[in-house]
Write a structure and sequence with these properties.
The structure holds 2 protein chains of 2 kinds.
Chain A: H1 10-18, H2 23-35, H3 37-55, H4 65-76, E1 95-97, E2 100-102, H5 106-109, E3 118-121, E4 125-132, E5 135-142, E6 151-153, E7 157-168, E8 171-174, E9 178-181, E10 197-203, E11 207-209, H6 217-224
Antiparallel strand pairs in A: 1-2, 3-4, 4-5, 5-10, 6-11, 7-8, 7-9, 7-10
Helix pairs in contact in A: 1-3, 2-3
Chain B: H1 3-9, H2 20-31, H3 34-53, H4 59-76, H5 87-107, H6 115-119, H7 122-128, H8 138-149, H9 153-164, H10 169-176, H11 180-200
Classes of the chains: A alpha+beta, B mainly alpha.
């Protein structure tokens, strides 16, 4: 397990434990958890605490709806231990770009049902969409020595580093780091000359490019980055 | 302190006895004991129902959540180990996953992204933003100019005025003597064309 410097905010971990996050955001947190023992423990703590709140108080006796339910269950529960078949592992497609294969956290790898279709963006960037129910995530690959033009976000952007690393004015982000950005942050992610970078992002609103001609991306950004 | 560490601490003395909830699960897992299940049901079902009602306004759905959760407890009892923590924590995570799936089943409808939604922001973007910074990344500027050069004249003119000269869509319409709708549609076509060109070159 790698050493992680940037973690999801405590309320995100709590909402993850409570099961109230959107599926796409929940997937990112689950992927971060695979890298980060600290957050694994935090999530377990939240679960224990939420369980206490939800299930330890007295339930009260006035629940007539439950009498019939118990009878129904007792009449229909299977006698023998039915080992539920483990969910069949779908044939997992590797994530490849230009003949390179990237290793992904399991929760993400299991989502790759089809070969990834990359589209190229100006500036040596590639982007691929990962459909998640009625939403999606974006893989974004930045080549060595490249970057996304300065932009802000209309909503929140959650980003998880899956390979290499990138920097912006606020810091350096390496494998497993989880970054949350919103409209208060203007940033310009950038790779160095040694290593490329693969991230996955969940975007609540479109990117908003703020520098010069790159504003031409604004309408396009909804095609690129959503 | 987790149960696991408690067990470790006392290994030399005597094994830590199972609490009643854990005993129910062991009975269910090893003996398919319906009496133990009924005990567990009477203890947890009312609590689960209160919990479920906080998430579902419909009583029927709240009850469905309880029934599905407790059915899973029966089926998965052998998967519980005391080092997973309290029974209530384990049960909570089962209930959470049941609820998560129920909510998705309710909401699941394919959402279609239509072009009007994609381009809706165009005008406010152009108006709201009139700074005229230099582009920091020459490579992008160069590529975009290259693509713009391949647009039909009418579209290129509109892109030029709006993105290079920072004019609003209304100003462009006035300057060219064409309806605002035409400006919008030319812009839309231009952006789609650029998208196509970018894809084709890679």
């Amino acid at each position: 397990m790698t050493h992680i410097n940037h973690h999801p905010a405590p309320d995100l971990l709590r909402d993850f434990a409570a099961g109230t996050l959107a599926p796409s955001t929940a997937l990112l947190i689950a992927a971060h958890r695979e890298y980060c023992s600290h957050c694994q423990q935090q999530i377990a703590n939240h679960e224990a605490l939420l369980a206490q709140t939800a299930l330890e108080a007295d339930g009260g006796d006035d629940q007539p709806a439950l009498d019939g339910m118990l009878e129904t269950l007792l009449a229909h529960l299977p006698e023998h231990t039915v080992r539920e078949p483990e969910a069949l592992p779908t044939a997992i497609q590797p994530l490849t770009l230009h003949h390179r294969t990237f290793e992904l956290p399991q929760v993400l790898a299991r989502q790759l049902h089809q070969p990834t279709r990359w589209s190229a963006l100006p500036g040596r960037l590639h982007q691929a969409r990962l459909a998640v129910e009625n939403s999606h995530l974006n893989f974004i690959h930045m080549d060595k020595n490249s970057g996304v033009p300065t932009h802000t976000h209309k909503g929140r952007e959650y980003t998880l580093v899956l390979h290499g690393g990138f920097s912006d004015a606020n810091g350096d982000y390496r494998l497993g780091d989880f970054v949350c950005l919103d409209q208060r942050h203007q940033h310009q992610p950038q790779t160095d000359s040694h290593e490329d970078c693969l991230v996955i992002s969940a975007l609540e609103g479109p990117l908003h490019f703020t520098s010069g001609l790159a504003r031409l991306f604004n309408p396009l950004s909804q095609l690129f980055f959503r | 302190m987790t149960i696991a560490t408690q067990v470790m601490d006392h290994t030399m003395a005597k094994p830590v006895p199972l609490d009643p909830q854990q005993q129910w699960l062991v009975q269910i897992a090893q003996h398919r004991d319906k009496l133990a299940f009924a005990e567990l049901f009477r203890h947890y079902a009312p609590r689960l129902l209160n919990h479920a009602r906080q998430h579902f306004s419909s009583d029927a759905l709240a009850e469905e959540m309880v029934q599905e959760t407790l059915t899973k407890v029966w089926l998965k009892a052998h998967l519980y180990h005391r080092d997973k923590g309290q029974v209530s924590t384990w049960l909570f995570t089962i209930a959470r996953n049941v609820r998560f799936d129920m909510l998705r089943r309710q909401r699941a409808r394919p959402e279609q992204l239509c072009a009007d939604e994609i381009y809706l922001d165009l005008e406010s973007e152009a108006d709201a933003h009139s700074d005229n910074e230099r582009l920091d990344r020459p490579i992008i500027e160069q590529q975009l100019k290259h693509y713009c050069a391949q647009l039909p004249p009418g579209q290129r003119q509109v892109v030029q005025l709006i993105y290079f000269d920072d004019r609003s869509q209304q100003e462009v319409a006035d300057a060219l003597g064409i309806p605002l709708g035409t400006v919008k549609s030319r812009l839309r076509l231009a952006l789609a064309k650029i998208r196509e060109l970018i894809d084709d070159t890679h």
